[in-house]
Write a structure and sequence with these properties.
Layout: E1 9-13, H1 20-34, E2 40-44, H2 50-57, E3 62-66, H3 83-89, E4 93-96, H4 99-104, H5 109-122, E5 125-130, H6 134-138, H7 142-153, H8 159-162, E6 166-169, H9 183-200, H10 203-208, E7 211-214, H11 222-226, E8 233-236, H12 243-255
Parallel strand pairs: 1-2, 1-8, 2-3, 3-4, 4-5, 5-6, 6-7, 7-8
Bound molecules: 1,3-dihydroxyacetonephosphate (13P).
1,3-dihydroxyacetonephosphate binds near residues 170, 175, 215 and 236.
C-alpha cells in the first residue's frame, strides 16, 4: 500500500452467502471492528441483502456494494438488475467481471466493459476483477492475459473515470482454494497492472488507481500482502464472512 498516493480499500465479496437477516447480523458484527479504520471498508452483498445492509450501516464507515449490474437502463433482461435500481437504494460500489461470473455465467471482457461504463455513468464505483487461470500462469502468459483484460475492460473509459475505478487482481487459482499468491507474486502482477494503466492513460492516473489483491486473503496473510507498494487493499471472499477475520484484515490495512 502507499496511502500517500491512493486509497487503501478492504472489500468483502460475500458471493452467494447470507440471507437478509443473516446479513444484518454479520454487518452488526463488522461495524464495531471497522470503526476507526484507516482504510475504506466495503461489504459487497447479494442483491436481496442490499436494502437491509444499507439500513444497517447508516451512520457508520462501512460502505455497501453490489456483486454485479446490467448495462442497460431497463428492458427485457429477465433476472438482471440495473444501475438505476442500485443507485436509488443507496448502493455505492459494484463488483464487475468477477472470475466466477466469467467462468459460470458467460461474462466476457466486452460485457465487463459495458457494465463498467454503465456503472460509472450512474455514479457507482466499479471494482473490476481481472486474473489469470492456473493454466495460463503455467503457460507463462499471465501478463498477456492481464494486459488484455485491462485494455478491454477499461476500453473507452476516460482517465477521470478510471480513477474512480478499483481494479482487483484475483488469480483464479487462488480463489477459494486456500492457495494464496505469495506477496511477491501479488506485487509483481499489481505492479504490472499499474504499468499497463500508465501505458493506457498516464503515470499520474495509474498512480491514483487503487489495485486490490484477492484470492484466499485472510487474517494470517493480509499484513504481508498489504505491505507491498502496489497492493492497495483486498477483495476478500471467505474471510469476509467472519467478522473477526475481516476485522483483522481491516486492522492490517490500518496499520500498514
Ligand atoms: P476467497 O477469499 O474466498 O478466496 O475469494 C476471493 C474472491 O473471489 C473475492 O472476490
Amino acid at each position: 500500500m502507499n496511502k500517500t498516493k491512493r486509497a487503501a480499500v478492504i472489500a468483502g465479496n460475500w458471493k452467494m452467502n447470507k440471507t437478509p437477516s443473516e446479513a444484518k447480523t454479520l454487518l452488526e458484527q463488522i461495524i464495531p471492528v471497522a470503526k476507526g479504520a484507516d482504510c475504506e471498508v466495503i461489504a459487497c452483498v447479494p442483491y436481496v441483502d442490499l436494502a437491509v445492509a444499507i439500513e444497517t450501516v447508516k451512520g457508520t464507515n462501512v460502505k455497501i456494494g453490489a456483486e454485479n449490474c446490467h448495462w442497460a437502463e431497463s428492458g427485457a433482461f429477465t433476472g438482471e438488475i440495473s444501475t438505476g435500481m442500485l443507485k436509488e437504494i443507496g448502493v455505492e460500489y459494484v463488483v464487475l467481471g468477477h472470475s466466477e461470473r466469467r467462468q459460470y455465467f458467460g461474462e466476457t471482457d466486452e460485457t465487463v466493459n459495458k457494465r463498467t461504463k454503465a456503472a460509472l455513468a450512474a455514479g457507482l464505483k466499479p471494482i473490476v476483477c481481472v486474473g489469470e487461470l492456473l493454466w495460463e500462469r503455467e503457460c507463462n502468459i499471465t501478463e498477456e492475459v492481464i494486459a488484455r483484460q485491462i485494455k478491454l475492460d477499461l476500453y473507452d473509459i476516460s482517465a477521470e473515470d478510471a480513477k474512480k475505478t478499483i481494479i482487483a487482481y484475483e488469480p483464479v487459482w487462488a480463489i477459494g482454494t486456500g492457495k494464496t499468491a505469495t506477496a511477491d507474486q501479488a506485487e509483481e502482477v499489481c505492479a504490472f497492472i499499474r504499468a499497463q494503466l500508465a501505458k493506457q492513460y498516464d503515470e499520474q492516473t495509474a498512480q491514483a488507481i487503487t489495485i486490490q489483491y484477492g484470492g484466499s486473503m485472510n487474517d494470517a496473510n493480509a499484513a504481508e500482502l498489504l505491505s507491498k507498494e502496489n497492493v492497495d487493499g483486498g477483495l476478500i471472499g471467505g474471510a469476509s464472512l467472519v467478522a473477526e477475520k475481516f476485522g483483522a484484515i481491516i486492522d492490517a490495512a490500518t496499520k500498514g
